[in-house]
Every structure is written in C-alpha cells, then in structure tokens.
Amino acid sequence: MTRHHQTFLQLEKLAAAQTKPVPLFEALRVVITPAVRLMYLSFEEYQYRLAGISGRHLLMGLLNTFPDSKLIEDVHGVLRNDAASQKTRRQTVHHMQELVTNCKQLSNRDIAHFPEVDRDVFVAEFPRTRDKKRKRQASSVHQLFTCSFAGRGCVPT
Based on CB atoms within 10 Å of each CB, which residue in 44, 47, 90, 126 is the most buried? Predict the structure, then answer.
C-alpha cells in the first residue's frame, strides 16, 4: 500500500508540473477515488500499519459486499424517484450522497449502515445547532446600498 500510494502521489506531482495530461495518472484517477484516497491518508497517519483503526474501518467499508442486487436497486430507486419528482433541479453529488445516506433501505433489512446519522445522534454531537432549518432570504428582503465618495458614506437606495 505504501508503494502504491507513494507512486500515485509522484504521478500526481508530475501531472501538476506537465502541461499535457499524463495517461497513466488519468487512468489511475478512475481507480483511486476520493474514498480510496481517504483510506490511503488514514493508513499514512499510522505509517501504513494495520494498527490504524480509521484506515481499517474505511477499507472494510470499501470491501463490503451487499447480499443481493435488489438492495442496490432499491437504493438507486430513491435517487430515481427524487430525480423524477424534481425535474428542474440538478442533482449534485452531495444531494445524491445525502439521499443514499439517509435512505432506510439498509436499516430496514437489518444491515449495519454506519454512515447513517439520525437526528438524535446529530443533535447530541452538535448541541449548538438550531432546531429549525435556516430559510434562504430572498433578495427582495435585502436593502441595497449605494456608496458615495463625497464623504457621506453608504446610504440606502
């Protein structure tokens, strides 16, 4: 793992210095996803030893296989339903990740779903968080200001 991670970092440095893309680096970027990179960094913290609990935890999450493909279809169904119900809104990666993390498909089948965080756990971890969601203020609520440099400062328009 040390050799693979160090090689990838050297290729990344080489690609940053080059003006044209490095083919090997571009091919490896498909395989070394952000999750794998996070696992490498977690193992690097413990000098790539198996004593790294966080690295082992991430590795086990990547190696976990689900018992049936129906489960995967059901999880993807949550994404399809959301996309169909909100056709005008673009699905971002963060929104899709939130949908999958908070879907109840895994917990309904009694499968350990470690990324799932329910409301009680979140409020216990972050006690200063307000109970209600923040509402986005419309631009009509904000008062516009114009600044003059004649010594009067900023005045509302």
Answer: 44
